[in-house]
Amino acid sequence: MRAIAYDEHGSSSVLHLVDRPDPQPGPGEVLVRIAVSGVNPTDWKSRAGAGSGRLPKPQVPNQDGAGIVAALGDGVTGLRVGDRVWVWDAAWQRSEGTAQELALLPFRQVVPLPDGES
User: Fold this and answer.
1) DSSP character for 75?
2) What pTM does this model have?
């Protein structure tokens, strides 16, 4: 899958397109095919960072997004494959945000979207 990532702090010029393996959900996780990735102030502030050093591993930015449930891990209830969902805090204290084709999240951070909502 394709993702936008950065491995050092800085301006938007540190963002680059990378190929990554498709993630698979574990217990309590939801795999979402991202249709829309939202950039919040915390996203660009985190990317800018206080310094310019390398990160422990590449960061995929963006906290919020929306998409379609692609797969469910064991123990996930209240969602089905194909459901339209909103996701939040995807990159909070994690290296995986929503600026990628597939995002893997704890089920508590995935909310069903009503059919009439854009």
Assistant:
1) T
2) 0.92
